[in-house]
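Proteins fold reproducibly. Look at a sample protein:
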Amino acid sequence: MAKSIEEQIEDWGKKQLGKTKYFTKTESINTEIETALKTAPSKTGGTGANYPDIKLFIETKSMRKIPVMIEVKGTKGNLIKRNSDGEIDNKKKDGTPNYTNINKYAVNGAIHYANAIIEHTKSYKEVVAIGLNGYDEAGTRIYEIDAYYLSLDNYCIPKQIKAYSDLSFLLIKNQEKFVEEIDKIGLTEDELEAKAKEFENEIEIKLKKLNQVMQDDLKISVGSRVELVTGMIMASLGVEGKVAPLEVADLKGEGGSKTNDGRIIINKIDSFLEERNLPQEKKDMIINDLSRVFIYSDLWKAENGESKLKTVYTSVKNDIMPIFTSARHLDFTGRLFNVLNAWVDIPDSDKNDVVLTPRYVTELMAKLAQVNMDSYVWDYAVGSAGFLISSMKLMIKDAQERIKSPKKLDEKIVKIKCEQLLGIEKRSDIYLLAVLNMILMGDGSSNIIHKDSLTEYSGNYEQGDLNGKKYPANVFLLNPPYSAPGKGFIFVEKALERMNNGRAVILIQENAGEGNGLPYTKHILENNTLLASIHMADIFHGKAGVQTAIYVFNIGVKHDVKQLVRFIDFSNDGYTRQNKKKSSQDVNLRNTDHAIERYTEIVNLVLYGKSYLEYFSEENFIEDTITLNGNDWTFKKHQKINTIPTEDDFKSTIKEYLGWKVSDIIQKGGFNEEL
């Protein structure tokens, strides 16, 4: 039987590979990848397995092993399908997979396989996806090849390597050069930011949908939702080779004290935490806190054969968890907390004092602190660990750029996660979010401490081989509870007393810098230097209801009254904000005036001065001295207002007066002697 043109194209591709080891669609490349391909939806969206036509590994001298997935087609026009923006068109407008394109086009199908591997394996976080198409035209066989690179670090955005005329770039002798081509590919800051916002928007949509169900259909109290969803995420993660992720089918609605759905979930969480090597005290605290929701409530009781826990878990498993893999660098649990509590007002309560800092602000502050791979970062009111996540991202990026040895780079990344990040959180429910967030970061949870940082924390490591040794902090990032003494500056004083050098960047209620932070602000200047004061936009729109500022300090050097401090008006940060509780982020937070560029400019202005003014004017940037009294730190205290009218001011005033006068006369029925 004659082979189809697609089969002929596939045979041609295999011959191109020479002695390079490859695997056909029916052969297993390895168990982990084959399991991932079976776990992900098929090319048509069904439950069947995925079968790339050709599979292989690229293996470099540095022991790097990159899976390559090749999809073959045999029809003119079936190489690739892009959208109007030139991007791979694998998603519909509503964000759901476009299985028609995935199934029909070679590159689109290969990218589908690549995403399945990254999402469903632990070992492979980068994949090369290749589309191979061929057809006959005017008696000539035409071959088309297009190669794309996907990596977890780049949010799995497919980036074109280049188009090729054959597959010789995959020959063993050419693989090192091909990898060099791959490593030249990187996302721009704009692309990374756009993708981060896309993920955040998707996360928010899913969480709000789930929250609506818990509110309207299941009648689950707001006070239980954070712990409920957080615990379910832990149960669904599993630990490879040790703890299987909880499946929806495992929740059977039984009523036994040891077999009900709540007990099953708690047992799975307990096993998960055990394999994460959390200290027993930390693990017991988490389990006790979560038991309130999963065991000591009625949520495990079945109604019509299904418990409320199963209903929620089905949504978490199917809708929430698929986002995790590609969005690991985001403060997921911070967004979870804000969404699940958005519809509830809690006046006169410490719960109202918890406002988790937006990612674009935590990233700004980490950059202002000049975080690098050698930084030791801590946060005395860590919340969901947003500052630590942003810092970790910068630290790892810096390490990747500076360390050339793969072995030494891996060792440094482990050290960053296990030794160079520390956070303290008093509230147990928020502490739980921080632990989960850092576990998802894989695994920076080692130094997340559940204590009162003002009265119970000594400034040391409290886990592992370094337990009891001083934490050598040189970066302090903080958004404190504004209800604390000094509007939260008590936390700053406490932390800076334990630091010898480095930088502190504080987001705080602005009036703390004009007297409300006393006596702490005055004391801080005795051993630290105020470098900059940034008057912020309304970043907590509809939440905190306070004006904030960022204060930047050099640590360990007394403030000199001759020191020029940089005061910046950042009230226009380029974002337009709304507070529509049920709307997605792209509605509530819109980049309407070069927001990304403005945030970059603020960093340059603080670090290097007014020569970097572009989107801001000299009216927005002031260099001035302060006293040592700790009460003149705000932008408005140093703003120069020119009270002498110019000729243009005079002309404008006269014009406005005459316009008003004429209008008034007309309204009264005509002119009179007044004019």
Summary: The chain has a mean pLDDT of 87. DSSP finds 20 helices and 19 strands in the chain. The longest strand covers residues 126-137.
